[in-house]
Amino acid sequence: MSLRNRLDRGWRMFGTGLSFACFGLGGVLLSLTLFPLIRLTSPDRDTTRRRIQRAMHYTFRLFVLQMTLLGVISYEVRGRERLRRGGTLVVANHPSLIDVVLLIALMPEADCIVKQALWRNPFLRWPVAWADYTPNSDSAEQLVETAAAKLRAGRSLIIFPEGTRSRPGQPLTMQRGAARIALAAGTEVLPVTITCEPRMLGKGEPWYRVPPRPGHWRMVVGEPMHAADYAPAGVPEPLAARRLTRHFVEYFTRSVTAVTPAAAGGGSALVPGGTMYRGVDA
Amino acid sequence: MDSKEEIHARLKEVLVELFEIEPAKITPEAHLYQDLGIDSIDAIDLLLRLKELTGRKIQPETFKHVRTVADVTEAIHALGLSEAATGT
Question: Is the ipTM of this complex over 0.90?
Answer without folding.
Answer: no
